[in-house]
Design brief:
By secondary structure, the chain is α/β, with parallel strands linked by helices. The protein has a domain at 58-183 and 250-310 and 329-339: 2-enoyl-CoA Hydratase, Chain A, domain 1, CATH 3.90.226.10. 43% of the residues lie in helices and 20% in strands. Strands 1, 2, 5, 7, 8, 9, 10, 11 and 12 form a nine-stranded mixed beta sheet that branches. A two-stranded antiparallel ribbon has the order 3-4. The protein has a two-stranded antiparallel ribbon with strand order 6-13. Helix 3 (96-109) packs parallel to helix 4. The longest helix has 34 residues, at 18-51. It starts with a helix and ends in a 5-residue tail after the last strand. Mean pLDDT is 83; it is low at 48-56 and 312-321.
């Protein structure tokens, strides 16, 4: 009996595993090819994303309201005005000032654009970034006869937010807008007392006595403070002269309230800082009046998100812990700013 069972087992043909191995090899090859293609595509897109300054990027238009051939481009100045890029995961986003300038460039090239509606919700920002936007808006108005700029203030249009709006032909503010804060600020932090207590000392090798001005581990000398104040005064005078020219006021009249004070929209109207209180629809009506055009369409520019950015947008890379310090303490160096800076 046992001999018969053994003979049966011997006589049964063995199942071949060759087909399985062939299938496994084919699958591995296909996975390898797919992985290589994906790696190559991601590398190509990453190189394109990191190497591009968006100078050749195409914008698409999103209709906000209206119709017709003549266009008003709505450009949003929301947030702190800066030329510096901000990092987000593996990507760097252009600063607000750069994005605004590129949209102005796009609007200027379009012969059907008759005006820019500048929506402002900003506490201000960098001195140079604000000045570049201001000058660029003036250039837009000169690029074609009849082109206009109107600014519409949202929650806050303070300091540099007002500075860039001074290029507008008219300024409209919502009734609840906070504006003003005309002035310049330079802030730093001094930890000399703390360093003395815990035994931390600064070692600085410098080529001149002013080279480490605002060193946080020592007190600023009277001469240094005077030097910095002179720079602040020069930048302040620039701001005042722009407001004076824009609003048709004397420099002396501007200086009466250009001390950093903030104002509600009704107060700003009495001072002559804005032209009227209103909203989006009334501002569009004002643009029609200024341009002499009854039928216009209001659009905003949108830029398609690059594929790699879209792919990685949901991923969090290298999360970091933010200590509860003011943002100005976290910057690598102090800077002169047209900025309303009320945070603790």
């Amino acid at each position: 009996m046992q001999e018969n069972i053994i003979n049966e087992q011997i006589s049964q043909p063995k199942k071949s595993t060759l087909g399985h191995w062939v299938a496994i090899i084919i699958i591995l090859v296909l996975l390898g090819v797919s992985a290589l293609m994906n790696i190559g595509l991601i590398a190509m897109l990453a190189a394109e994303n990191m190497g591009s300054d968006d100078s050749s990027s195409k914008y698409t238009e999103e209709l906000i309201k209206g119709s017709g051939r003549k266009k008003v481009v709505c450009i949003e100045a929301f947030g702190v005005i800066s030329l510096a890029k901000t990092s987000s995961g593996l990507f760097q986003e252009q600063g607000l000032a750069t994005r605004i300038i590129k949209q102005i460039d796009e609007a200027e090239k379009d012969k059907n654009v008759i005006a820019i509606l500048l929506l402002v919700d900003s506490p201000g920002g960098g001195v140079t970034a604000s000045d570049i936007i201001y000058e660029r808006l003036l250039k837009f108005k000169k690029s074609k006869e009849g082109r206009k700029v109107v600014a519409l203030f949202r929650d806050v249009a303070a300091s540099g937010g007002y500075y860039i709006s001074a290029a507008a032909d008219k300024i409209v503010a919502h009734r609840t807008t906070i504006t003003g804060s005309i002035g310049v600020i330079l802030s730093s932090i001094n930890v000399k007392g703390l360093g003395d207590k815990i035994g931390v000392r600064d070692v600085t090798i410098k080529s001149g006595k002013y080279k480490d001005i605002l060193n946080p581990f020592r007190d600023a000398s009277p001469e240094e403070l005077e030097m910095l104040q002179n720079v602040v005064n020069d930048l302040y005078n620039r701001f005042v002269s722009i407001v004076s020219r824009s609003r048709g006021m004397s420099v002396a009249d501007v200086k009466k309230f250009a001390n950093g004070s903030i104002f509600s929209a009704p107060h700003a109207l009495t001072l002559g800082l804005i032209d009227e209180i209103g909203g989006f629809d009334s501002t569009v009506d004002l643009l029609k009046e200024l341009t002499g055009t009854k039928k216009i369409k209001v659009v905003r520019y949108k830029r398609a998100m690059p594929f790699l950015e879209m792919l990685m947008s949901g991923m969090s890379v290298n999360p970091k812990i933010d200590l509860p310090f003011p943002n100005r303490w976290k910057s690598q160096s102090p800077g002169f700013k047209y900025l309303w800076q009320p945070e603790l």
